[in-house]
Amino acid sequence: MIVCVCNAIREEQLRTYARQGARSVGGAYGRHGCKVKCGSCLPFAREIIEEEQAEQAALPTPAAA
Ligand code: FES
């Protein structure tokens, strides 16, 4: 599903950027090589990034060796 029509960014791409460390919409779009344009995608893009951050936070941390 396309999240950002202006930049042709798909939901899965945003989730990947968030899992790779993007902490904001601007950061994720930067990884895609673009910037926010019209802004109509921002609410959904933020939601996706926040979901991924929550999932990452819920993952168990490796035990200290
Ligand atoms: S739809 Fe994302 S900037 Fe326009």
Structural class: mainly alpha
The neighbouring-strand order within the major sheet is 1-2
Overall, the morphology is: elongated
Quick one: CATH class? Answer: Mainly Alpha
Bound molecules: FE2/S2 (inorganic) cluster
CATH superfamily: BFD-like [2Fe-2S]-binding domain
Keywords: 2Fe-2S, Electron transport, Iron, Iron-sulfur, Metal-binding, Transport
Family: Belongs to the Bfd family.
Organism: uncultured Sphingomonas sp
Protein name: Bacterioferritin-associated ferredoxin
Give a quick set of tags describing it.
binds FE2/S2 (inorganic) cluster, Arc Repressor Mutant, subunit A, two-stranded antiparallel sheet, 65 residues, mainly alpha, 2 strands, elongated, 3 helices
Topology diagram in text:
Layout: E1 2-4, E2 9-10, H1 11-19, H2 25-31, H3 42-58
Antiparallel strand pairs: 1-2
Helix pairs in contact: 1-3
Brief summary:
The protein is mostly helical. It has helices at residues 11-19, 25-31, 42-58, and strands spanning 2-4, 9-10.
Describe this protein's structure.
This protein is mainly α and 65 residues long. The protein has a single domain (2-58), classed as Arc Repressor Mutant, subunit A, CATH 1.10.10. It is built from 3 helices and 2 strands. A two-stranded antiparallel ribbon has the order 1-2. Helix 1 (11-19) packs across helix 3 (42-58). It is elongated and about 45 Å long. Residues 4-7, 36-41 line the site of FE2/S2 (inorganic) cluster (FES). The site of FE2/S2 (inorganic) cluster (FES) has 10 residues, from loops.
